[in-house]
């Protein structure tokens, strides 16, 4: 059993936090489990050099820990958020791109396939705390919800232009909102008087409907719709499948809510005879230290021959 060095982990975060204040509140979920699996993969495959793509590199927390602890590992990072790329440590090579396009990029060793494909589907917590990122739903926040300025439309655009049926489906399908149709109807009525621009306009409606406990789910639904998260996840999985998950390749995906987990589970069912599939949940200690990790699931997909 690999013994994880917490001292090394803290050192890795210290390196990241130098001149990089954005990471100070962010905690890389299941970092220990990720590291254990990468080291085990390296040992079992006898690979001297490993090429990995971190499809959602964010501030580089997971990748920095891996680079600190795994010998001869090369990581190419991708992130749709150009602001995240700008804040990465200098030792991480990254490009701005949607994670669905990982297959278009060459490995750092110029080989055909990546040995490890990693995707953390969660957002960086600072994207919510920092209102300039557009994911915040504090009362005076702008109704944006985009991961990147390159995304065509905002949450305000959805609320001001989509039909009642479309809004109902967004709230029902992506947030499991129990009064989805009623919420959609009031939004349609209210936008005739005043365009939606700020988060408090939605929060006020939810409070009027005695739905204050569904504020987070409502904004989750808007975020998923704006960024086409489930559609993009399915496209990503299709591209992973088109790579045929070659021998001696490791796939690691972290999900955070049931819609993501369901999409990944449907994908892995296609490979259950050929591949070893494990679903790992965070330890009790991690949940205590980082409550946000409670809903996380790590999917490990690896060829049974390894």
From TrEMBL:
Molecular function per GO: rRNA (cytosine-N4-)-methyltransferase activity
NCBIfam families on file: 16S rRNA (cytosine(1402)-N(4))-methyltransferase RsmH
Source organism: Paramecium primaurelia
Name assigned to this protein: Ribosomal RNA small subunit methyltransferase H
Pfam family, one: Methyltransf_5
GO biological process, one term: rRNA base methylation
Lineage: Eukaryota, Sar, Alveolata, Ciliophora, Intramacronucleata
Highest taxon of the lineage: Eukaryota
